[in-house]
Write a structure and sequence with these properties.
- The complex is a heterodimer.
- Chain A is mainly alpha-helical.
- Chain A contains twelve helices and no strands.
- Chain A has a single domain, classed as Orthogonal Bundle (MetI-like fold).
- Helix content of chain A is about 70%, strand content about 0%.
- The radius of gyration of chain A is 25 Å and the shape is globular.
- The two termini of chain A are about 15 Å apart.
- By secondary structure, chain B is mostly helical.
- Chain B has two domains: about 1-70, no CATH class; about 75-240 and about 250-280, MetI-like (MetI-like fold, Orthogonal Bundle), CATH 1.10.3720.
- Chain B has 13 helices and no strands.
- Chain B has helices spanning about 20-45, 50, 65-75, 75-105, 115-125, 130-140, 150-175, 175-185, 190-220, 220-225, 235-240, 250-270, 270-280.
- In chain B, α1 crosses α12 (about 250-270).
- Chain B is globular, with a radius of gyration of 24 Å.
- Classes of the chains: A mainly alpha, B mainly alpha.
- Chains A and B meet through α1, α3, α4, α5 and α6 of A and α1, α4, α5, α6 and α7 of B.
């Protein structure tokens, strides 16, 4: 990762050679992150060990140990949220990856109007997530929404019942996944496109001389060489899909019923809906543990891949 | 999305040969990507009756009525001012603070370096919603609730991990000999940094700043819980148009245009740097 290993000894000795110097440069960042990262974390831990419900201030604050975690883990609503989050994250990232990779590969061809197509594909990603949520809420509004109206016509033409989108518990999660795909496929496209552009041409030339089929070239050359970019794209997207909040909050708030209640939405519903902040704090800690576990897994796989290649 | 199956293509694929299906796919994808955006913009130009009509009306007399209502009956300009102040300040502070931190991580060897770098990154892994409660209580204690200063501090902290990791990669790309020769010539450290390193870093810093600015401008989860009537930023203000049973779609559309247009114009203006900065920083 480092260009040169030794600090600048050749230069005139000064403050910049002192061992404390890098720490001085990092101090402001570290202080801000301590205030906004570590402090809330510790405070959450404290909250989670008590029984504070803001809407019931008459309750005496007591130390309850691991009671909140114990309650949560047995709560069917929590297990449901865990399942919803897992389904949402997995399918959204899976579809986005293949769609983004397909588009990135298409863009290697000589295409007229490339700039236009690229801008069109990238636009959804640039929109504020709130606007994405509101726009789709409008398009999918029962009866009058643009997509609802035309898809009802289309389905009616084939004698099928009108699609329900966000109003039926069965379809709501699928609809949210498709909206996430609409919004974030551009991101996959962008990263994989850049990754493809940086691949060396030699292996392809060799493959052409050998007369390898393009399908074989894709599986044996493109995919393995693209692995670092693929890993980065998958890690970032999985983390972000896992924490999706804005669009779901605007679109369904977790409904109908609990059909789209992800961990994040459940957390705000408990914390700001019921003001049961101790339970919410316990949940936030559980979410944190899941995220850290996930990222360690990713980093292990990622580091292993790099070692294998070296 | 089945039409975007991965297609094996080598860089030496013959140009313009049986390429028509590529255009069919690209047109379809662009259509899916653009129609929602086009429709929300059209809605912003409808009057109330047209916006509510079933079936959807594609042909109508455009009007700026919705924008006028937004500006005269809602405090949109105040929200926009708040959004601008918060996102520009947070961008400034996070880039300036993060720059030095990234420099230290890229240029110096010291014990615990990798742990520090990873710890900084781990701050970005936290879902905002998971820290919203303690931050809320913290802000309450220090009278930062309902204040722009609090929001600026928060966004600065939120974006710092991202800034540090992006710029760390860029700094590592700059050969250290260039700086060293300036130091040998008798320059101070800061002088060498300012006159030699910074100019080389300018494009990368710009790209990072663009990214941070967009993220801060769009931030919703914290803003909705931590701001009040006077300090509301655009995202929670715009989201509030969906409340109630009688939704005025043309106002909603206009509000969406209102929040997106500044950032969109900005992105189109800097598209090249944006794409380049992204791909360079992420490829580390």
């Amino acid at each position: 990762m480092d260009v040169g290993a030794a600090p600048a000894r050749s230069a005139r000795a000064g403050a910049h050679d002192a061992p404390w110097f890098p720490w001085a440069l990092m101090a402001p960042t570290l202080i801000v992150l301590l205030i906004l990262g570590v402090f809330p974390f510790l405070y959450s831990l404290y909250l989670a060990s008590t029984n504070i419900i803001l809407s019931k201030p008459y309750l005496e604050t007591e130390f309850v140990g691991l009671y909140q975690y114990h309650e949560l883990v047995q709560d069917r609503r929590f297990l449901n949220a865990l399942k919803v989050t897992a389904i949402f994250t997995f399918f959204a990232v899976f579809i986005e990856f293949w769609a983004g990779l397909g588009l990135a590969l298409l863009f290697r061809r000589r295409i007229r109007g490339k700039a236009f197509f690229r801008l069109a594909i990238l636009l959804p990603m640039v929109l504020p997530p709130v606007v994405v949520g509101l726009t789709w809420r409008y398009l999918l509004y029962p009866h009058s929404g643009l997509v609802t109206y035309y898809s009802t016509l289309l389905f009616g033409f084939f004698g099928l019942p009108a699609p329900q989108f966000l109003s039926s518990p069965d379809a709501a999660l699928q609809t949210l996944i498709m909206i996430d795909v609409w919004q974030w496929t551009p991101f996959m496209f962008l990263i994989l496109h850049a990754g493809l552009a940086s691949l060396p041409p030699e292996p392809y030339e060799a493959a052409e001389i050998d007369g390898a089929s393009s399908w074989r070239v894709f599986w044996t050359i493109t995919l393995p060489m693209l692995k670092p970019s693929i890993m980065i794209a998958l890690v970032i997207r999985t983390m972000d899909a896992f924490r999706t909040y804005d669009t779901i909050a605007v679109l369904t708030k977790g409904g109908p019923g609990n059909a789209t209640e992800t961990l994040n939405i459940l957390l705000t519903n408990i914390g700001f809906g019921f003001f049961n902040i101790s339970k919410a704090a316990a949940l936030s800690f559980i979410i944190l543990v899941i995220i850290i576990t996930l990222s360690f897994l990713f980093i292990r796989v990622f580091a292993k891949k790099q070692l294998d290649e070296a | 999305m089945s039409m975007t199956q991965p297609l094996p293509v080598s860089p030496s694929a013959p140009p313009r040969e049986r390429n028509w299906w590529v255009y069919v796919i690209l047109l379809l994808v662009s259509f899916v990507a653009l129609v929602p955006i086009v429709w929300i913009v059209l809605t912003a130009l409808m009057d109330r009756a047209v916006a509510q009509s079933v079936p959807p009306q594609w042909i109508f007399t455009p009007t700026l009525e919705a924008f006028e209502t937004l500006l005269t009956r809602y405090d949109m300009l105040l929200y926009m001012r708040n959004s601008a102040i918060v996102s520009v300040s947070a961008t400034f502070f996070s880039v300036v603070l993060g720059m030095f931190c990234a420099y230290a991580l890229a240029r110096y060897e010291f014990p615990g370096k990798n742990d520090v770098a990873f710890w900084i990154l781990s701050n970005r892994m936290l879902p905002p919603v998971a820290v919203i409660l303690p931050i809320f209580m913290f802000f309450q204690t220090f009278k930062l609730l309902d204040s722009l200063v609090g929001l600026i501090l928060l966004y600065t902290g939120m974006q710092l991990p991202f800034v540090v990791w992006m710029l760390k990669g860029f700094f590592e790309d700059i050969p250290r000999q260039i700086e060293e020769s300036a130091l040998v010539d008798g320059d101070t450290w800061f002088g060498a940094f300012r006159r030699v390193t910074l100019p080389l870093m300018a494009p990368s810093i710009t790209a990072t700043a663009i990214f941070v600015l967009i993220l801060s401008w769009n931030e919703y989860a914290f803003a909705v819980f931590l701001t009040g009537a006077q300090t509301r930023t655009l995202p929670p203000a715009v989201a509030s148009f969906i409340g109630g049973s009688d939704i005025q779609w043309n106002l909603l559309g206009a509000a969406c245009v209102f929040i997106t247009l500044p950032i969109l114009l900005f992105v189109v203006a800097v598209q090249r740097q944006f794409v380049r900065g992204l791909s360079m920083g992420m490829m580390k």
